[in-house]
Design goal:
The structure is a single chain. The protein is mainly alpha-helical. It is built from 10 helices and no strands. It has helices at 3-23, 25-28, 34-67, 72-97, 111-138, 146-176, 181-190, 194-208, 213-236, 246-265. Helix 1 (3-23) runs antiparallel to helix 8. The radius of gyration is 18 Å and the shape is globular. The two termini are 29 Å apart.
Length: 266
């Protein structure tokens, strides 16, 4: 297997491991500390927003310009919108599978359906995240640079940080539904297993079909921006009145860390 693909596999196994770590909180805590999870969600959002430009969109535009094909801006915009649309479609699938309601409240005989949809929603969201990591590592093929590697690793770290509360978001509700701690953990970590598969697929696609690299990079950026803006930022701000700056400082710090890593090494 190509070394770049192996690196993508290792990175996405790492992001899945953080999902498992988050799911493991059900073993020790009835509920995780809200302040810490909000900060981590905010930090992940900041990292993903910064990475979407410096590690994904900017290289996509540069590679599209070098290819001398379609206008670079159109290529980047098309990929970006496609990535966002992919995530939007994922949410729509879950929405319609629920029967057109976002409410998790229901009768006791709907418990199994609620559990299935909970796991499915997190699993669907993990697919573009794995693709984002795979594409970032696949972009190293033929143009391996230290800053490129740092950028790919940082994207994996940012997604991994996001996966921690996602793992807890599956396992803890399952525990509240009456599942044992062991089953809650196993189902919670299983929601992240699609990331290594998606990561390898993304890396292989870029490595062996290099012409699609600009589009694939911007696709990953669109998916990451939608996840950050539509899900992470609103979620981390739920307790804004009680903790007005915890999540916000996480966003700022995450953005600054990613920006420094890319600009200083670039």
């Amino acid at each position: 297997m190509n070394n770049i693909v192996c690196m993508a596999l290792a990175a996405t196994i790492g992001t899945w491991s953080v999902t498992a770590l988050g799911a493991a909180t059900v073993i020790f805590f009835k509920s995780p500390r809200t302040r810490l999870l909000n900060f981590m969600l905010g930090f992940a959002a900041g990292v993903m927003i910064a990475a979407s430009f410096w590690s994904l969109l900017q290289p996509a535009i540069e590679r599209a310009e070098a290819a001398s094909g379609a206008p670079a801006g159109l290529v980047a915009a098309a990929g970006f919108l496609s990535g966002a649309a992919f995530m939007w479609l994922s949410d729509k699938i879950v929405f319609y599978a629920r029967g057109g309601t976002d409410s998790a409240q229901g009768l006791s005989d709907e418990k199994i359906n609620r559990i299935i949809m909970l796991i499915l929603s997190i699993t669907l969201h993990n697919i573009p995240e794995g693709l984002a990591v795979g594409v970032a590592f696949g972009a190293l093929q033929g143009s391996y640079t230290p800053e490129g590697l740092i950028g790919a690793i940082t994207i994996a770290v940012g997604i991994g940080l996001q996966n921690f509360p996602e793992g807890a978001a599956v396992s803890i509700p399952l525990r509240r539904e009456g599942f044992s701690r062991k089953k809650s953990f196993l189902l919670g970590q299983a929601s992240g297993l699609v990331e290594p598969v998606a990561g390898v697929a993304g890396a292989m696609l870029v490595v062996y079909v290099e012409a699609i690299l600009p589009y694939a990079l911007s696709f990953a950026a669109g998916a990451m921006i939608l996840v950050a803006v539509h899900e992470l930022i609103p979620e981390c701000q739920l307790n804004q009145k009680a903790q007005p700056y915890s999540a916000t400082m996480g966003i700022v710090l995450g953005f600054a860390v990613m920006m420094l890593l890319d600009v200083m090494l670039g």
